[in-house]
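Standup notes
- DV: blocked on the single-chain target, sequence here:
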Amino acid sequence: MSGSSLVATVAALVGFMLAEDKSLATLPVACQFLATMSSTIPASLLMRRIGRRAGFTTGQCIGFAGTTAAALAIYYESFTGFVCASAVLGVHNAFWQYYRFAAADTATVAYRSRAISFVLAGGVIAAIVGPELAKASVGLFDPVRYAGNYACVAVLILCAICVLQFLDIPPLTAAERQDSGRPLKQIAAQPAFIVAAMSAMFGYAIMVLAMTATPLAMVHDGLSFADTAFVIEWHILGMFVPSFFTGHLISRFGVLNIITFGIVLMSAAVLVSTTGNGLLQFWAGLVLIGLGWNCMFVGGSTLLTECYTPAERAKVQALNDFLVFSAVAGASFSSGQILHYSGWAWINFAMLGPMTLVLLATIWLRLWQGRARIAA
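- DV (later): unblocked, structure below
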């Protein structure tokens, strides 16, 4: 997560520096998420076969190759090379996205929401470490600006590889590996799955839409790189600090109420961000988006765990994350286009449609659950 927040701080700026067509500044980020989307299913199925520890380690090794390639692309001023390196990092990201599910799968049913939350709470450290490392290493290899950032990510990945060797998660039993469970179409038709996927999809896509555009918008409005790192740092804190409490809140108030609260926070972010282009507006808007993302993503991930059996989890988790990162890839590419041609305000207006869809979906699920209780 520290490496991810570091990359989020600088990737769009590197793209802007290297691209001749500045509207393509967020293309590397888009390709990163596109690669994540494409790799979610293979990553999940590989881990079903070889286990979590070997699978996560494989993903980190891929990430080390991607960061090395990114630093070389920056050194040789190759936009194409940087796009390709970002795609390799996207494959790496597909693996570690399953950390939250690995925790949930080893927890009791009552503890799953807290297990997911506590895994994501690691982002609190990442919120500080990532942007601070970005500031400290941006000129590490001057005059080759930003190459040092990716060298730092490579070091973080090596640390993760060492830590992962202590991971001990029970593998599926022989019977569970042979049993594939219900057809995926049947599982995906469940109302709870639909709402879980929509909450995670659109919550993550909205967050990426705003976060990807923010560094470019801030630089355009005359704010410094230090200001950008400060805003991203607080945004990531907003994303992950609530993880200490979200699981408990879900247990107390219900998952649909927490998802709905996330939508309210996202709406407040739109209101704040469209009042001006100062540091305060960027800071407050991005913090609110981070808080809303946490409610929608943790809520959606928790609701998803109610939709499958152990034998079905690999394919259901894979489908969920494929859908999530399909939406995220589209949002990250659209972010640069919307910002370049329409401006920062329209980045915020674009959030309203997806939020409305998730709100309507939660209302539909509440009504469906109510009818099911009456019928029972």
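- Follow-up: The mean pLDDT is 90.
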